[in-house]
Amino acid sequence: MELNFKEIRIRNFLSFGNVEEIIPLNKCLYQVIIGMNKDKSNSSLDRNGVGKSTIFEAIHYALFGKSIGNKITLGNLINNINKKNMIVTLVFEKNGVEYTIKRGRSPNILMFMKNDEEINVNESQGDSRETQVEIEKILGMNEDVYNQIVCLSCKVPIFNDETTANQKNIIEHILGINIISEKIDALKALIKETKNEFNNKQFEYNTIKTQNDNLMQTINNQIADMNTAKEKWENEIKQQINNVENVISQMKLIDIDTEIKNFQLLENYLTQEGVNQQNQQLKDSLNKQIQEKDIFIKNYQIRIAELLKYNFIVERQNILYNEQLNKERIAYDIEENKYKTIKNFKEQNLDTNFKRIANEIEKKETELANIKENVCPTCGQPMGVEEVNKLKESKKEEIVQLQKELHRIDMEILEANHTISLFVPKVFEFKPVSFNDMSSLLEKENELNQLKLQLENIVKEKNDLIEQENKIVIVDLGIKPQTHYSNIQEALQHQATLESLGITLNSLQKQLLTNPFEQQEKSIEELKKNIQVLDDAPIKQIQDDLNHQEVLLKLLNSPSSFIRTTILEKSLEFLNSKIMQYLAQLGSLHIVSFNSDMSLTIEYMGIQYGYVSTGEMGRITLALTLAFRDVWETLNNCKINLFAMDEVIDRIGLDTAGVEMTVQALQTKEDKNVMLVTHNDTLINQAPHLMTLVKENGFTEILK
Length: 704
Known about the structure:
This protein has 704 residues and is an alpha/beta fold. Among the domains are: 184-251 and 513-556, no CATH class; 271-305 and 434-478; 312-421. Helices cover 59% and strands 13% of the residues. Strands 1, 2, 4, 5, 6, 7 and 12 form a seven-stranded mixed β-sheet that branches. The longest helix has 68 residues, at 184-251. The radius of gyration is 57 Å and the shape is flat. The two termini are 33 Å apart.
């Protein structure tokens, strides 16, 4: 079964004028509706006030006879310029049957047709309740459900912003459990009668119970007072014991014998410590000098290594070889340049003559071709046949002579090229060298010898310093003796105090074993003997009857009853799975689920949240909407082709990533006509299809 919205026709509705606009609704497109307000002088406002939301307002008015969220009165829905003949026509198809709703104002009209046959016509009211009930029955949903799963508008609260009662009503309609409420009132009356009987029977019971309770209250008060006083007394003694034990424990941390011995050891330690400090300063000075020598040694070694990469013997031989080879190359270059100059001159001269004679031949051939019978080619005067023939022969002879000359030059060119080919360029292969000349090589050799000598001297100086450092001895003093007191008299006083605290502790521990509240406990036991025995058997039967009746009420009315649970169990499981599917698709890590009482739980990392960020709540809102729609379609076995959102994505505060994921989720609805009104440039720019509305001179029309 399918619910296919086919088209909406609008005339004199809000900013749409008297020319009827027809908007198809059955195209499987993902499109964004944008606007251009030519009546606005400020270009920054040219998107606003165009009438983009009017398309959704028209569909809503056709279905339910009012504006979205009742934000606009019926009279204000009429075009404020034309002021009459407002009419909206919605065509939809349900299970292969076509329905048409025609609704208007000024004059009022409501027409509902099935396959072009009138189901109901009421031109006088325009809002017949009977017709409206029939429309919603065929749709299979009320206005609240429609606003949540078909056309979401910023003019009505999103699901999360609805009251608890409205949320429950929406969920019950989506899940189809709104029919369990018919027998509740009668059962409530029966429960009221049973409660009255129960109250009368319980009065006698409560009288005795009150007496017992008062006596028991007195007993409990005495016990509480006694226990409080006893606890206070015990806590005070225990606190004193704890304080003394803490002091003793702290004082026992000090060993008096060790304390005295450490005073003697400390004097020797401090003397040797002074000697060690002087020796350490001398060692530090020598070590610093050694480190400085190490730096010099390292630098010399690096430079020597750089010079040792040269093979000075081979370098010297290669320099001498290259100097001799260079002299030969200079002589060759002089000869080669001389040859190239002659060659270039000859080539240019022959080429020039060849081109010149070729041009002359072409010119003579042209002149010969231009000679006409009985006409002089020079002056244009008449000529005899014999004179013409002589002239032609003369031209032919000139051409033959030029061709011979051309042939001669061509042979000279061939000869010159042959001579050129005999020339073989000479290649001079120089050996690789690292120095420009012999003097630079000798300079580097001398530097290497000097560095080796200097390195040897510095190494000797370093070794002398190391020998001096090794002769200096630092005595290992071990751990410095520690004392807690400044003198032996303080240590002796410590021992005397510790003995006194031991006597005090023993006295407190004996006191804790006594019981100063023995007589008071005996008095409380005598009071307990005055408590009467209560018999509640006379009221238990009435209580059982009342409980039974209340259980029956819960079975009908309680969200946790097995009746509701049986209906909700599978539906809620399916709904919650759909919610998690869309949350994952929208990039949310939250766990969102409906409970059996229709309450919504939001968890993250196993922790329930009462508040989430605006961006995350936006993802949750979209996931709920998409899940509601899937569940309704599944439970009703009816697919809906239209899915519209009017500035909802702008309202719920999605971040850039959330918007991108929303686009991806919506683009998967390939079998739906997805229509968006938005000011979000990301949504607009990524939309594969755009519907442009233009407002000019107070009227809106769709740009074709």
